[in-house]
Fold this protein.
Amino acid sequence: MGRRLQARRDELETRALVRLTAAYLAIFASVIAAISVLAYALVESNYRSIVAPALDTPEGRAGFAAALRPALFAILSSDALLLALVGAASFALARAALRPLVEAREREERFAADVAHELRTPLGAIASLAQAGGEGAVAERAFATIARRALECGDLVGDLLTLARASDPQELTCEPLDLAMVTRRVEREVASDAPGVTFEAAYADAIVDGDERRLTQLVRNLIWNARAHAASRVTIDVRAHDGDAVLTVEDDGPGVAPEVRERLFERFAKGRDSRGSGLGLAISRWVARAHGGDVTFAGGSRFVARIPLAGSG
């Protein structure tokens, strides 16, 4: 089934390539034909002006026609060469034009497959628990798990809807706030649920014009990511530097796997041992860019978020 679908996609891509190449070639051929007609008309006009007195005789007209044949042959030969070159150029141009569309389609297919995979697990658990039913404590545990899984699905769909939007400041509700204060609050929240992990933090005031809910989301994703991969320690630093509020989060874990680094901020990008949805870093970058900043990977297990300070723009 998969091979037939791939063959069908390849066939559709080939048809589109042929149609687009033909369209480009038709346009170029029309231009070449118009230029050729104009060139022939100019040559004919020049010849006519030279031999005008002789055109009143049959011999003169025959000589005039014979003189124009080499010019017509030269024009048609040039047209044939140009059409061959233009045909090759049209094919190359059509492939270049179709490539982004093909890549976009492939990304959509991967995205749909990833979403289906991520939603299948919690939805399967919900269905199994609902079918199992039960009474008393068993039923209570089952319904508690159902509720938790349903909320996880809701969070996943919410994250996907966020990433479907452009990183647009109009999506934010901004006010002056201290990124250090937001980070300190999130650190305490995560630390309370992280036995065996030490949090080392340094905070300095860093006032930004930001959406508190979104910035909390950014900070929480970065700190939870560090907590999930830390061996025993997470280091957090917030300070103002060069017109930006800079948040640095690092853990003492093994660092980002090499095979993940190139697609680290893509949706569902995660290593083999990751237990999250793979959306956290993509969401963090979305939030940072909506604020005019960015989130970058600084090597090892260090991530740096930069948000412009209030009034710096």
Notes: Helices lie at 2-51, 58-132, 136-164, 179-191, 212-229, 258-261, 280-290.
